[in-house]
UniProtKB/TrEMBL annotation:
EC number(s) on file: 1.4.3.1
Protein name as it appears in the record: D-aspartate oxidase
Gene: ddo
Requisite cofactors: FAD
Gene Ontology terms: cellular component: peroxisomal matrix
Organism per entry: Chanos chanos
Length: 338
């Protein structure tokens, strides 16, 4: 019997992954996603969805490794299955190149992607402004397909979906035993977390079907990611900028920088421009607390603040959030709601 009521707030890649993990693994939980935006209108939808990461300063490296590996393994299984195109998950090969030789030539995720190696001198000849490069195959997870696919998986596991703006967790706690906060940037107002801030990102969607391999400048500001139906060319990383309007100067800068790396982009056709606000935070917050609601203890699990790596870490942090829910319910089973 499903006697524990769980509300997952947020229907981006983090909320949907977390809801699916809980609904599929804990048979005694009834899971409801509550969000004010769903695919195709979340931040997750417009992201390139490429899997790799930079390191967060205060999370043990081992934990970051397992977040990455769990997500990679989960998505790899989909990428090599017959579900791949419906789920929008594909393998993607290419280069990350650096103008200066990085201090760490083998990032923590290098052992989880496929075929990671330094680029050869012949490969580097294409990029005369760059001194060093890494070649590897990773995963590209296109959320405009992946989120609807997760929604379907959630419903199959008995999950429900409600479109609503949550104003207050106290209020929500009257109807649920567990709240999982996957509201991304929304956590700034929902839980008053001033550590979460927007990191604005603008990208172009380009029709250039001859491009097959990604190219990313290690500074994180210029990248070209061929996908299943268009190429994502980016980007910008503007901290504390809340503007969701397309900026023409940003678009010109993106095109100019990307075409320097890949001159054939000039022959492409721009299909659209998109802006999203990354849920920036020094470290993602994946932890639990207890809330007192009308004399009852309600479990509140947080899973937000993934910055530019929410897709990369989505399944791994969802599994951690699931672990926190399971462990907490084991320690303190919920009392009946009055
Ligand atoms: C240009 C760009 C490119 C990117 N590329 C990549 C990439 O290649 N790889 C990668 O890993 N990451 C990438 N990212 C980062 C990635 O998009 C984010 O880390 C990720 O989308 C965060 O997911 P999320 O589910 O936490 O948040 P979101 O997708 O923003 O979802 C938040 C959810 O919470 C809901 N919500 C918030 N507040 C409330 C409320 N009060 N009531 C109800 N619902 C609420 C929203 O409606 C929404 O459903 C990119 C981001 C940008 C902007
Ligand atoms: O940095 C990248 O290559 C893509 C990304 O995650 C982002 O723009 O946030």
């Amino acid at each position: 019997m499903k006697n524990v009521k769980v509300a997952v707030v947020g229907a981006g890649v983090v909320g949907l992954s977390t809801a699916v993990c809980i609904a599929e693994v804990l048979p005694y939980c009834s899971v409801t996603i509550i969000a004010d935006k769903f695919s195709p209108d979340t931040t997750s939808d417009g992201a390139a969805g490429i899997l790799f990461a930079s390191e967060f300063p205060d999370i043990p490296l081992e934990r970051q490794q397992h977040w990455f590996k769990d997500t990679f393994d989960h998505l790899y299984t989909i990428a090599v299955s017959s579900q791949a195109s419906e789920a929008g998950v594909l393998l993607s090969s290419g280069y990350q190149i650096f103008k200066e030789i990085p201090s760490d030539k083998t990032p923590f995720w290098s052992k989880y992607v496929l075929g990671f190696r330094p680029m050869t001198d012949r490969e580097m000849k294409r990029f005369p402004d760059h001194k060093f490069g890494q070649a590897f195959t990773t995963i590209k997870c296109e959320c405009s397909s992946y989120l609807p696919w997760l929604e379907k998986r959630l419903r199959k596991a008995g999950g429900q979906i409600i479109r609503e703006t949550v104003k207050d967790f106290q209020q929500l706690g009257r109807s649920y035993d567990v709240i999982v906060n996957c509201s991304g940037l929304g956590s700034r107002s929902l839980v008053g977390d001033a550590e979460v801030y927007p990191v604005r990102g603008q990208v172009l969607k380009v029709h250039a079907p001859w491009l097959k391999n990604f190219i990313r400048d290690g500074d994180g500001k210029t990248y070209i990611y061929p996908g299943s139906s268009y190429v994502t060319a980016g980007g910008t990383r503007q901290a504390d900028d809340w503007c969701l309007e397309v900026n023409k100067m940003d678009s010109e800068g993106i095109l100019e920088r990307c075409s320097r790396l890949e001159p054939s982009l000039h022959g492409g056709q721009i299909l659209g421009e998109w802006v999203g606000l990354r849920p920036g935070r020094k470290n993602p917050r994946v932890e639990r607390e207890w809330m007192q609601v009308k004399g009852r203890q309600v479990l509140l699990v947080h899973n937000y603040g993934h910055g530019g790596w929410g897709i990369t870490l989505s399944w791994g942090t969802a599994l951690d959030a699931l672990g926190l829910v399971r462990q907490s319910l084991h320690e303190r089973p919920p009392k009946a709601r009055l």
